[in-house]
Design brief:
The chain is mainly α. The protein has a domain of 153 residues. It is 78% helix and 0% strand. Helix 3 runs antiparallel to helix 8, helix 5 packs antiparallel against helix 6 and helix 8 packs antiparallel against helix 10. The longest helix has 56 residues. The two termini are 48 Å apart. Pfam families: DUF7972. Keywords: Membrane, Transmembrane, Transmembrane helix. This is DUF4239 domain-containing protein.
Length: 350
């Protein structure tokens, strides 16, 4: 048996996860779209060279091209629909705009009050870091409040919870510090921040040890719950802003690649027989390249939707409600262990 097999498998899994993470979220969308198109080109060229597909048959090419034209024209409708979706979020009456501004002002005031500092940063990275620091500071205050507590069960439970919050907050801070200031994708480093679990655990500790916790600890837990809720609001807001920004970029880039793709499709349909682009492998490569250009709008759309869907999936939890499968399984396991302890506790004492 290879003693290093487990380590190599773990390394391979980590590399695979980083690659998937890069394709879905972290990578430049232009690079991801280009890689998708490169895969399409190589696949078509190889299949055509080995005779699996008839790229040198003009009748076959024209029949395929006939289905491309309606699809590319439909992309114009997609672009129009995306622009309408983005604009619908921005169009409002003066009264609605004033109400939004007032709500934002109140929210920022609540965040500054929870953090004990003002003014709060304007940039997304700075604001998220501001809220995470407030969570970390409150966790340290919570741990300090039970340090002299005589009840070891209460002290250990609260200190363990506070330590978990501090560790995760520090990881989030490190990720935020590595991002470029002002970029809208500042949301991405905190996608995995488990605020739902922290919120649930804070409420559980407050309810379970209500009569045994010092007054200072109960107040600290209440402030922790409020700060975590403020963080959840901030992340949801930046998710909405990010999605609007991405959709606006996507609609413009679809126009950039859609019109050339439509021209290429027309050229493919009008190629003469015999074709002036050559014979044999030259024709296969040329037709593969033209088909790749024709598919570029779909590659761009896929690259952007990869990220939008991933962001939406990873930030779908709201407050104490957990929707991601992994978090749901962890919470179910915690609740199951709690129920088991409650059932077996009395018999152990006996």
């Amino acid at each position: 048996m290879n003693p290093h097999g487990g380590g190599r498998a773990t390394t391979d899994g980590g590399v695979r996860r980083r690659v998937v993470q890069w394709v879905l979220v972290g990578g430049n969308r232009h690079v991801v779209a280009s890689l998708l198109l490169a895969i399409v080109f190589l696949t078509l060229a190889l299949l055509g060279q080995f005779g699996v597909v008839a790229l040198d048959d003009q009748a076959t090419v024209r029949s395929v091209v006939g289905g491309f034209v309606p699809g590319l024209v439909a992309f114009l409708s997609i672009v129009l629909g995306i622009n309408q979706l983005v604009l619908s979020q921005e169009l409002a009456s003066p009264g609605e705009i004033r109400r939004r501004i007032e709500e934002v002002r109140e929210y920022r005031h609540d965040v500054e009050e929870a953090a004990g500092a003002e003014p709060s940063p304007v940039l997304p990275t700075g604001f998220l870091s501001f809220v995470v620091r407030a969570i970390e500071s409150e966790a340290e205050t919570l741990a300090e409040s039970v340090r002299s507590e005589a009840d070891s069960d209460v002290r250990d439970a609260v200190e363990e919870y506070a330590a978990d919050v501090v560790d995760e907050s520090e990881r989030a801070q490190e990720s935020l510090e590595q991002t470029h200031l002002g970029r809208i994708n500042a949301l991405l480093p905190v996608l995995e921040y488990n605020d739902s679990y922290q919120l649930i655990e804070a409420r559980r500790l407050r309810e379970e040890y209500e009569d045994r916790l010092p007054e200072e600890s109960r107040e600290s837990l209440s402030r922790m719950i409020r700060t975590l809720e403020l963080f959840s609001v901030a992340r949801s807001q930046f998710r909405s802003t990010y999605t609007q920004r991405v959709l606006a970029h996507l609609s413009r880039r679809l126009l950039y690649v859609g019109l050339p793709a439509l021209v290429v499709v027309i050229v493919l349909g009008l190629l003469r027989t015999p074709s002036p682009v050559g014979t044999g492998w030259v024709r296969v490569v040329a037709v593969s390249a033209l088909f790749t250009v024709a598919l570029s709008p779909l590659a761009v759309l896929s690259a952007y939707l990869f990220r939008v869907a991933s962001v939406a999936e990873r930030t779908i939890s709201e407050g104490p409600f957990v929707s991601r499968p992994q978090e749901a399984r962890e919470e179910w396991n915690r609740e199951a262990r709690t129920r088991h302890t409650d059932r077996t506790g009395p018999s152990d004492d006996e």
